């Protein structure tokens, strides 16, 4: 497990946390952070994916504001800082950084076959945008916030996309969820799983709304999806 340097398309560079599979070979997955930066939890998730046979690379998307952000969801001060970083985040440049990350991962020694992406919260929205704007071979979006504002891009989806939607998500109101399902539900490339009793971030381990059973169900579906489309 190591940090790598990624060159931004508009100049400068940023870092990413890379976890490698024990075999030294396998597909790649770009892991897209929440609003808490590349923290211990997201690094642990990269390590978990590496244990499943993937090269997992999570880039620091807040580097233009403050490199190396590592926050938790345990204090009000950290929440306030996370929201401030989110408000100052340039979404277009963030997607560009993710595409640069994906290109680096495709060329990394040992990466064989395909490269996909998975994201949570802010990362869930960015995962959807990777499905519409990049060559990600398979993409998973966990409870993405604001996807309904980009449904006009849905025609650009040409590779498989898996979406996990929390039915009681306080950041994604029912009408937004309905728009997403109505617009994408008929697309054969898109699989949508609904968790009707779950709140936002139900898969964030030990988080306020963590639900072990729902998190495990989503994880199993995600792993099966990646096994089908990346190996």
TrEMBL record:
SUPFAM superfamilies: alpha/beta-Hydrolases (SSF53474). PANTHER family: ALPHA_BETA-HYDROLASES SUPERFAMILY PROTEIN, CARBOXYMETHYLENEBUTENOLIDASE-RELATED. Keywords: Hydrolase. Pfam families: DLH. Its EC number is 3.1.1.45. Signal peptide: none annotated. It comes from Rhodospirillum centenum (strain ATCC 51521 / SW). The keyword Signal does not apply. Residues 14-229 form the Dienelactone hydrolase domain. The keyword Hydrolase applies. GO terms for molecular function: carboxymethylenebutenolidase activity. This is Carboxymethylenebutenolidase, putative.
């Amino acid at each position: 497990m190591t940090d790598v340097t990624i060159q931004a398309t508009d100049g400068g560079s940023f870092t990413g946390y890379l976890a490698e599979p024990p075999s030294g070979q396998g597909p790649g997955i770009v892991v897209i952070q929440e609003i808490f930066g590349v923290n211990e939890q997201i690094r642990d998730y990269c390590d978990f994916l590496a244990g499943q046979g993937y090269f997992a690379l999570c880039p620091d998307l807040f580097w233009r504001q403050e490199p190396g952000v590592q926050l938790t969801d345990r204090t009000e001060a950290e929440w306030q800082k996370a929201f401030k970083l989110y408000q100052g985040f340039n979404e277009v440049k963030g997607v560009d950084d993710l595409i640069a990350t994906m290109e680096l991962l495709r060329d990394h020694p040992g990466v064989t076959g395909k490269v996909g992406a998975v994201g949570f919260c802010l990362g869930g929205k960015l995962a959807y945008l990777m499905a519409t704007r990049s060559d990600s071979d398979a993409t998973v979006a966990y409870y993405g916030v604001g996807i309904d504002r980009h449904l006009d891009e849905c025609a650009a989806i040409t590779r498989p996309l898996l979406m996990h939607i929390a039915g009681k998500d306080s950041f994604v109101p029912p009408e937004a969820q309905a728009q997403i399902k109505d617009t994408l539900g008929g697309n054969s490339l898109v699989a949508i799983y609904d968790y009707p009793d779950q709140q936002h971030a139900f898969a964030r381990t030990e988080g306020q709304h963590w639900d072990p059973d729902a998190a495990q169900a989503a994880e199993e579906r995600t792993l099966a999806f990646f096994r089908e489309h990346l190996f």
